[in-house]
Design a protein that fits this description.
alpha+beta, Glycosyltransferase, homodimer, 4-stranded antiparallel β-sheet, globular, 2 domains, 12-stranded antiparallel β-sheet
Chain lengths: 663, 663
């Protein structure tokens, strides 16, 4: 159970399976590739929270040297899945054990040789990853094994490691280098259960004769060491035991029960698996494509706060705390960003790399001119600050962790509100504050006024932030002064006045809340009509010339998102009307969309629609087949937010409770 | 003197010469085409101020039936300039007489046949146009002449006339129809000096034998009658005499003296000629391409107020009054437009067709996708209302015409200011009003904040409007109430408070006024670098994906324009610094740009630069060769604003005074 298997080999699926069969421990991720693969096959050992930028290219997370490279020759014939001599091939992801398996049977000289390998990234020690290789043969054969650390790294915008040094000899291999930008040392060390003779770089070789019916086993225990981190030795079986114990514990906390629905159960398990392998182990957060690679610069988006946090709050509260603390810790960078645009308060990075905004002003390349297109995600998608504040408020609502709030949580919330206050303009004719020139969750419509999601989210940020601050000032009179010391004078009065006058778009006669000023006046056409207007399959739908721009077609849930986050803000009637209104216009161009509609459907009692949207979302990485490349840029990877959103729908909406709750 | 000539015939120049050799009388324009040409050769008899729209196409001015069609056969050989039998060919525009001439000598049966024709549109009677045809031959020949009214009209977005009826017989021909949209009757009648036998439609034929050395003359006297207009008969010579007298009078008023500089004199005469043939005869204004056709929908832009009005104020004050009255008369439509966008006051049409805004929300077609691109000219180019107010204030400053101001002029100015006041937002952090989300004269940068030109122009509109209103309330206490009766309560107090707090961008340390918020942060590259990035010659430079968008490259004078309109606003030092700063970034993608720089150069004592920019501007239609077609849309025509701007530079800057002033 809970094993994802795939038989047979197809070269076209190498990249997709790299994502689908990913293993990880929150800090390290290792793609579902094979022992004999290299950079060309997108082998990736991704490190969370470690970023590097090479001049003129996008900064992104660093991939480490690959300690698990291995190419075997049996009687001179390479045991390579891409060869002609394959009898059978299967890969498997044992989600219960957090382990990747591979078994390939080769026909060699009239007999069969079986190459079995497994690998896991320790759920206990953040820097540890282990692999076991087992070779068996029907006949006596000679084996020639080349194994060790492959220093040829797959990078999207690399190379990131320079001054590379490698070593291999005896039962030890090592590759070390420094990041280009900050010179941070990155070292991969590996011990082998059998001595090797160095051939080149971090690689060595083993030559043995294997008797019919016997096995040759090679264990590798590796560590990825960043900075001055040292390491302690261990062996495969000890590490494996601790790893499996931890996974059993994780599943006992996390597993939901789909009540006998096998497809839903599997999809749900798979989603939970991905959430578990992303649970952070340190002072970093979760990237939009998780640990599956460098896509989207390995940066942290609002996905984490809105789609992932609920899972961790319920299942792994200490991880939830890390996620919210990540934002509190990066408050100075958010203040810096706000200041750089001429505003007060905290404007969080749209694509956060430890607080730094990795988002480019030219985030899209025109498919016709191949020129970069000026985009406004970084500058105008201000709702990120409301999302951050929302997460902190939610976290506090759940934990009542006063200390966290006093130690920066509340200051962060108020800073986000203050940002919106200074960003807003006063409409002196209509006597109200407005948030102008923003981008809402639906990125296809850039630079709109009074996006409903954005206005309400900041309204609630300010309102709840002020209420909490007043509570804290009373509860901890001694801390009072300190609580507000880094905030502008009279911040609470100012925010109160602001919330009283902030424009909140109201439902119209049909109960519909206009997504932004003028949305109703856009061309009333559906998704397929708009799609049919594309002149190139990879055209960007938004911007000024996009097919969706002048129409009502939206990239993803927008107004609907607001209802998910604040279900009590509007009556079920209003929520239903908006769901029915906006769904036909929604392209679901973001993996955040289906799960949002799944959650929304749950909240208006549409179980069937919710169920099918939940499945679409939970199976997104099982299905694969999505876009992996845009021009020459790799954009594939796993979709944690879809997994997290599916989990929210399953747990809070579809009633797929926890296993132990039902026993 | 003052005759523009061109010898020889080239089919490629048919369209260009149609513009270059245009005749007109402010109401009617007739392109410089030949007798034997038809719709395919862009023969056009354009009517000012008469608009029609055909379903699904742009509304535009109506072209009338062509009364001057004529095809001659001599001994069976067609006398067509496109034929093989051309001995010589010349066309001429006698600017002094407002008359177009054509002389073509054909080789027919060993002898020469000369086809001479002239035509003029009466400078005296607005609906009258005359033509004289003279045929001479070296040998006896038989002539077969087909002449009459060609009802096949060249239209960009037509056909505009339906229910067409034609008649021809004796010395009379007629074609009549109705506009599609409003059913307005349009009738062209023509009398001939020789009877015709009807052949088809409005055409008849004449067959005669012409003796060697003798002439055959055919005069045609035509009228274009719109609505229920009737007509009176006249003959060619009577009409010609009155016409020439009027042209002599016009030139005596208008001619400037370039002090012996023959090139400048000719360019200046040509510019003045174009301004004279556009002087309106009724309740309409001047279109951006004058009377040369339907380009830009025959609509009236800010060109008229800013670049043309000065000439008429100096030379033909009654025409200047018509121009400003056109805006006063269309105040209701401007109020309607403001209201439709949710604002108060008067928001003038970006492309005015008697007040109606002809500008589309999709004014550009993408050259790669062939899809319409959402543009914001109509919605965001709010400075049009300031330009209108500026013209009225200037007109009043010159004429002190209190009655005009009391009869709507002042109400218009205040309504324009009120529009800007309600359009503006209050920046509650910086304690000032701002004009957000606008397009300035430089259209390549859409949706910018605090465009300096726009902010200052509205500031001065409001300030001068209020001052005038206060003066009038004192001077005419009886009219006081009526003056403000259609304006919001306390309008003057409101506008005063607004002007006190409106943000006016100030020169920076180097004396440069930032064109709009953030302009200085744009990529600092020049025009040629940006041009080199084009992937298609007809690409639009602006919008979100244009090559200029993210750079400092601008379409036309913007900050510099402000200095031209209010030379005393800033010191010469500041004006010089801005001139030097912005000129290298200016693409001059608009014909309004060179003349603006010419005027600006005059104002900072750069005579040489001014002179060369003046010439570039004054010769724009002499040079021709500009873009005539964009994809399948004809965009060519004359450039009155460039003529008007050249005149301003010549008269006010270069010291090319009036002839009589110098005698």
């Amino acid at each position: 159970m809970k094993i994802l298997k795939e038989s047979g080999f197809s070269a076209e699926k190498i990249v997709e399976n790299g994502n689908k069969f990913l293993i990880g421990n929150g800090y390290l991720g290792y793609r579902g590739t094979l022992d004999e693969f290299g950079a060309k096959e997108c082998v990736g050992l991704n490190i969370a929270g470690l970023y590097d930028g090479v001049a003129g290219k996008w900064r992104e997370t660093v991939n480490a040297f690959n300690p698990f490279y291995c190419l075997i020759c049996a009687d001179g014939a390479p045991l390579d899945v891409r060869g002609e001599n394959i009898f059978s091939h299967e890969i498997a992801l044992d989600m219960e054990k957090g382990t990747f398996f591979r078994e390939t049977v080769f026909s060699v000289g009239g007999g069969r040789v079986t190459l079995f390998s497994e690998r896991f990234i320790s759920a206990v020690e953040k820097d540890l990853l282990c692999s076991r290789l087992r070779l068996t043969s029907e006949k006596n054969i000679s084996l020639h094994i080349t194994a060790g650390i492959d220093a040829d790294i797959w990078d999207l915008n690399g190379p990131h490691l320079c001054e590379v040094e490698t070593h291999c000899g005896g039962t030890f291999a090592e590759a070390s280098g420094k990041t280009q930008e900050l010179g941070i040392p990155v070292r991969v060390v590996c011990t082998f259960s059998h001595p090797l003779k160095r051939v080149r770089g971090g690689m060595g070789e083993i030559s043995i004769n294997l008797k019919a019916g016997e096995s040759f086993v090679l264990d590798r225990v590796a560590r990825v060491l960043v900075g001055e981190e040292g390491f302690s030795e261990t062996d495969f079986l000890t590490a494996q035991e601790a790893h499996r114990r931890e996974w059993a514990r994780l599943w006992s906390l996390a597993r939901l029960d789909a009540k006998g629905d096998a497809r839903a159960q599997f999809a749900l398990d798979y989603s939970v698996y991905h959430l578990l392998i992303l649970a952070p182990k340190g002072n970093y957060s979760i990237a939009a494509r998780g640990l599956s690679g460098q896509t989207y610069k390995g940066a942290v988006f609002w996905d984490t706060e809105i789609f992932l946090l609920p899972f961790y709050m319920d299942v792994l509260p200490q991880c939830a705390k890390r996620l919210v603390e990540y934002r509190v810790n990066t408050l100075p960078a958010a203040r810096e960003k706000a200041k750089s645009y001429g505003f007060g308060g905290a404007f969080y990075a749209w694509e956060s790399q430890n607080g730094y905004d990795a988002c480019s002003d030219f985030n899209v390349t025109d498919v016709f001119t191949h020129r970069p297109v000026r985009t406004y995600f970084k500058e105008k998608q201000i709702h990120i600050s409301a999302d951050v504040a929302y997460a902190i408020l939610k976290y506090y609502g759940r934990t009542q962790d006063d200390e966290f709030m006093l130690r920066g949580g509340l200051e962060t919330v108020l800073s986000c509100a203050e940002f919106a206050r200074t960003y807003s303009y006063y409409n002196h004719v209509k006597k109200r504050y407005e948030l102008l020139d923003v981008i809402g969750p639906d990125e296809y419509h850039e630079r709109v006024n009074n996006n409903a999601y954005t206005n309400y989210m900041f309204y609630l940020t300010a309102k709840e932030g002020v209420a909490l601050a007043e509570k804290f000032l009373k509860k901890y009179p001694a801390c009072g002064e300190k609580l507000l010391e880094n905030l502008p004078a009279k911040i609470l009065e100012k925010l109160k006045e602001w919330t009283e006058k902030l424009y909140l778009p109201q439902p119209n006669g049909e109960g519909i809340i206009e997504q932004f000023d003028g949305y109703f006046r856009l061309e009333d056409v559906g998704v397929e009509e708009v799609r049919s207007r594309l002149c190139h399959p990879n055209e960007y739908w938004g911007g000024s010339g996009g097919v969706a721009t002048a129409t009502r077609v939206i990239k993803q849930a927008d107004v609907i998102m607001l209802f998910n986050l604040y279900p009590d803000l509007f009556s079920e009637e209003i929520r239903r009307a908006n769901y029915d209104f906006y769904l036909p216009y929604t392209e679901h161009g973001s993996s955040l969309s289906r799960c949002s509609y799944a959650i929304a459907a749950c909240n208006i009692g549409r179980r069937e629609e919710a169920y099918s949207a939940f499945l679409e979302s939970a199976e997104i990485d099982l299905r694969g087949g999505g876009k992996q490349w845009a021009g020459e840029v790799y954009i594939g990877g796993t979709h944690p937010a879809a997994s997290g959103g599916a989990w929210i729908a399953a747990f809070y909406g579809l009633g797929f409770g926890k296993k132990e709750d039902l026993q």
